[in-house]
Each structure stands twice: as C-alpha cells, then as structure tokens.
Design goal:
Layout (H helix, E strand, L loop, with lengths): L13 H9 L14 H26 L3 H28 L17 H7 L11 E4 L2 E4 L3
Antiparallel strand pairs: 1-2
Helix pairs in contact: 1-2
C-alpha cells in the first residue's frame, strides 16, 4: 500500500499498516512542551510495535483477518466509552452538598446541556426527533 501523508505510515504488512493508522505520529507543534515531541513519537512507534505483534498473534491464532480484529477492538473501546458517559451523565443531574475543597456547591446541570456536550440523543430516539400528530419535527435542544 502507498504511503499516506508523508511519514504517517510506511508500506508494510497489513498488521503494520493497521497499527500505524491506529497510532499516528503526532504532528509537529502539537506536543507540549515541544521538547517532548521526540518522546511522543517514540511512544507512538512503540505502541505500533505492540499493536502489530498483538494483531499478528490474534489473527494467526484465530484465523481471522487483522482488519476485522482491529475493528472489533475499536468497537469494544467505543462501547466502554459509551458506558463511561452513561455513568457520568447521572452524576451531573444530582445535586451535591457544598464541597469544602471546591469552595462551594457544584452546579446542577440540565440534561440538554449534558446531551449537547457529547452530541448525545435522547434514549430511544436515534434520529434526535420527536413525532407529533402533524409529523416528525426536530427535538428542541
């Protein structure tokens, strides 16, 4: 496969390319402090090596395409993040006692604010619309 965006990943095995796509090198100027840029690149390269070895071992062991394994792994990560969001949302809706360390009471958040912060939609309403007798119209934020 061809190189994508100079230096993003090199042609190699499928597992090496998948690992490179999942662990891109940071763009210059995006790492702070700037003197840590080389360390950040080194960490990304080390993670690529670990991912490559893991994908190769799993695909050899299970006789499954490495791309499917990588997609399954990302799906599991997405589900874990969704579960964490579902745990945090109720926390934002419950009033708390004033905290001495924080210097006061924590605000009570409105669900619309929390939903908007993560582009979430109402439960059971994947389109973000509500039906009314005239037809469907967008839900109010």
């Amino acid at each position: 496969m061809a190189q994508v965006k100079a230096g993003r990943y090199m042609a190699g095995t499928v597992t090496e390319e998948l690992a490179a796509l999942r662990n891109p090198l940071p763009e210059p100027g995006t790492v702070t402090p700037e003197d840590c840029y080389d360390d950040a690149c080194e960490q990304a390269l080390e993670q690529r090596k670990r991912d490559t070895l893991r994908l190769e071992a799993a695909s050899d062991d299970q006789q499954i395409d490495p791309l499917l394994l990588a997609l399954d792994d990302l799906k599991a990560q997405k589900e874990a993040v969704d579960a964490q969001i579902r745990q945090l949302l109720p926390y934002g809706r419950v009033p708390r006692q004033p905290s001495l360390r924080a210097g006061g009471a924590r605000p009570r958040y409105r669900i619309q604010l929390l939903r908007g912060a993560h582009r979430l939609q109402r439960a059971g309403d994947p389109a973000g619309h509500r039906a009314d007798r005239q037809g469907a119209e967008p839900a109010a934020p």
